Amino acid sequence: MPKKVLSSRPQKLRLYVAGHAPNSILAIANLKLICETHLPTDHELEIVDLLEDPRRALADGIVVTPTLLRLHPLPVRKVIGNLSDASQVLLALGR
Amino acid sequence: MKVHSPQAVATKTSTGIRGFDEITEGGLAKGRTTLVMGGAGCGKTVFALQSLAAGANTAKEPGIFVAFEEPVRQILANAASFGWDLVNLSKKKIFFFDARLSPDIVKAGEFDLVGMLGMLKAKVQEIGAKRIVFDGIDVLLSLLDDPNAERREVYRIRDWMSEMGLTGIITQKVGAHEDERRHSFLQFMVDCVVILRHQVDDGTAFRSLRIMKYRGSSFSGGEFPITLDTRGMSLSHRGPVELAYKVSNERISSGLSRLDTMLSGGYFRGSIILVSGAPGTAKSTLSGLFAEAACERGERTLYVSFDEGADQISRNLRSVGIRLAPHRRSGLLKMFSTRTHGRNIDEQFIALQEMVLAFEPRCLVVDPFSTLSSKNVHHAAVDTAQQFLDFLKTRQITVVNTSLMDGLATTNEATATAISTVADTWIHLSYFAQDGERNRALTIVKSRGMGHSNQVRELTLSEKGVDLADVFISQGKVLMGVARWEWEQRELEQEKRGRLASDQRRLQLEIAQAEAVARIEVMKKEMDGRDAELARLLKTVGAAATLFDSDRAVLKKMRRADEDAGPHAKTRPTKKHPIKPAKVRR
Q1: How far, in Å, are A62, A84, B78, B120, B187 from residue B65 at the CA level?
Q2: Between chains, do A80 and B106 touch, taking CB under 8 Å as contact?
Q3: Most buried in the list B32, B177, B213, B583, measured by CB within 10 Å?
Q4: Distance (Å, rounded) from C-alpha B111 to C-alpha B144?
Q5: Does B547 have pLDDT greater than 60?
Q6: Do A92 and B106 touch (CB under 8 A)?
Q7: The complex's ipTM?
């Protein structure tokens, strides 16, 4: 079953935020809620403050903040925005 | 704390765009933001890139280019022809930031540019950037898709640039049918607004630039034609043109001596000559004559053709006795041919100007100077044309322009005005269709500062050369070609007939005279015969004197009469008694 295949390999997520910008703070909160309620517990989530590590963001091709990357499984998916639209986020994450 | 002293406000920074720096008295305001708006393909990106390149190359100001719309690779490829060496600059002095959001990106809520500006700040500090471009802000705005967010993010960018002390350019694509008011806050927000336009008139593309607003600075508010060439964008305007060029009284030959006579000595040196006319009225021939004459005087001459190739022109002119090939070989004459259709009119003039600067001719032919003949010429193009001609005047270059024009009356008024303004000497060639043939007629419409003939002349072309012939007016009609020839023939015929008639009359008189002389001779002979006969008769009769007394009396009377002639008798014998009244009576 596809759901099992997906859940058998842990999701790897990275969220780029920009300091204490309102959208960034919102995005962190929204994402944590989505993960707790919809994702299996073995997912990996990394939150990067772009203002502290701009080079990394450049390398990842980040343009706006907040940007959520699903690095694993491939292909890489990008979601922009404060993640207030949970259904869009879940769609992008393949849930 | 930021303090803007008046000097700091006045400080401007060059855009590297020729003409723009002049009309803005220095370029863009340092540390301020300029909005460049316009439709697709009118040169917004070029404007921005050129300013960055100028900053990096000449002003030692590194820059950042944020591309919202086009991939960086594509931008570099498009700008490769401009010779700014962007690829090399992009390694160190200009940082290209690909800010495109791929179409498959998922949007889940509001976002902002805090992160992007954070990254850009790091880059600004890294390369010491002084200039920045946000190219295609409209793409970002449409993605934000919320008036409040749009405004908030644009102000964020503006404040950030100001904080970083960057000279900024924001470009915005404005469609013709879009509601421009929606993003009008952009115009209020920035310090300077530049509007670019791209339009096509009569198959020719025009780009123009207008400064709508420039806070704290004076600027020329007109619409200026812009052109793109290998050095990038330039404005055809070079600041206010002063019509103060040196004028010359020197006359130079038109290459056609009778035309020189009609112009009471030829063209003025440094004047603008326009040769207008319908297709095939020998406009190029007059140009060729002028070029040939110039070369024979040893003057460098540039012949620019937008119709035909140089070799073809050379060959065609050879057929009417104009020899350009030797001058081309000697390098005195340079011929340049190019196609213009679809090119920006101002690009053509910039190219012409560059050729003139490079070759430094004393005489120039532009065949045809099409701006002056098109039906719907954009006023900007006419301005460009005038600026080009003014440029020639300041350099005392005599120029012969040809212009396709069917008739003077049908000419578009604006065009006629434009021509009349620029042309010092205007020669119009036309066809006279008459008696099943077409002949070329030459008229001098105007010629400033010289007496000139108001006569129409027929222009004749043959392998022997080009010439002007008098035309005849008969019954209110101008006679040319065969009609003129016939007229001339008739004249000759009449003269001949008159001569013949008098010859004949003389002959008749001579014959009559000869007849009279002959008749006299015959009569004399008859008289002699009778005399002889009479003598014989008398001899035969002899002494016998058998003659009747009456007869003898007659004879006696005659002889006596002869003797009695007195003084006549002395002269008559030399004439052998030609006429004797008695005998004639008899």
Answers
A1: 16, 31, 15, 10, 21
A2: yes
A3: B32
A4: 8
A5: no
A6: yes
A7: 0.85
Contact B116 A78 (CB under 8 A): no
Q: Which residues pair with A65 in a beta bridge?
A: B112
Question: Tell me: the pLDDT tens digits for B388-441?
Answer: 787 788 888 999 988 877 655 545 555 556 666 778 888 888 887 777 777 888
User: Considering the entire predicted model, what is its pTM?
Assistant: 0.57
> Maximum Cα–Cα distance for chain A, whole Å?
41
- Identify the closest residue of chain A to B102 by CA–CA distance: A78
Q: Which residue has the tokens 């002269």?
A: B571
CB B275 within 8 A of CB B388: no
> How far, in Å, CA of B120 to CA of B63, rounded?
11
Q: Is residue A1 part of a domain?
A: no
* pLDDT at residue B374, as a whole number: 54
- Indicate the number of domains in chain A: 1
DSSP classification of residue A76:
P
Nearest CA in chain A to B109: A81
Q: Please give the residue range of the domain that contains residue A37.
A: 11-92
CATH of the domain at A20: 3.40.30.10
Highest mean pLDDT among A41-45, B63-67, B238-242: B63-67
Does the residue A5 lie in any domain? no
Mutate to test the interface with B, among A38, A67, A80 (most CBs of B within 10 A): A80
- Test mutation, A30, A55, A60, A63, chain B, max B CBs within 10 A: A63
